[in-house]
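Hi everyone, sorry if this is the wrong subforum. Our group has a chain we'd like a structural model of before ordering constructs, and none of us has done structure prediction before. Sequence below.
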Amino acid sequence: MSNFLKRTLTGAIFLVVMIGGIAWNQYSLMVLFFAISMLGLDEFYKLLINAGYLPNRRLGLICGGTIFLLVILSVLIGAQAAVYLSFVLAACIFFSELYRNKQTPFQNIAYTITGIIYIVMPFALWVSFLKGYSTDNGVYNPHLLLGFFFLLWTNDTGAYLVGMSIGKHKLWERISPKKTWEGFFGGLVLSIIIGYVISMFYTELHPILWMVMAATVSCAGTMGDLVESAFKRSINAKDSGSILPGHGGILDRFDGVFLSTPFVLVLLELVQRVNGLLH
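Answer:
Right subforum, don't worry. Here is the predicted structure as tokens:
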């Protein structure tokens, strides 16, 4: 199978799984995001271990998975106390280094906790946020999350096409030699246009707010991509993994999600509190 066909097939399956998992119901969303989080966290730890670092992979996966499940529990039954247990689990990561007898205990703690914050928490935050954003009769509403991913994918596509066509001025050559300013603005403009188009179908937000969200996703998503590139460069890794043939690993596919999510959710949280802006 040619690389182009492999990429196309993988991309098509990826889109079907993502859109289907998000749009079906809140339970499919929880399962999908839990799976992505765990695969991504394991990928993160494996990269570090292969580079000679010593995160507590097993405990990190247990804590990351448990924290995600605690967030799900708080969403389903309103058990807010479950969230506080997350801090207990974080403390266990500190305590575990007393028994591992490694030479760099706090570096190990830092890498272990960083993986949970960087990879698990963004997906858990989306699950928690969407619980408070349902229709008037309490039915799960995936529109904001679908719009978020449509904008993110549009930005990536626009940046790639414009950058490949006319890109000349390097955006951040030290970290990512192929990215250009032309590509960045191409992705930004296309995302804003698609944001307006989305507003015609998903009317939860005013068109201007969809376009503001598009600009936020484009800027923060691009920075997230650069951060992941910097991480791979620091450990001499080309791709984060091979779970997605032709597309790399989980971190490669969701790098824009990790660091754009908090900015978008803050924006949406503010919108919810301003009368007249949220339909």
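For your construct planning: The longest strand covers residues 176-180. Residues 268 and 274 are 10 Å apart (CA to CA).
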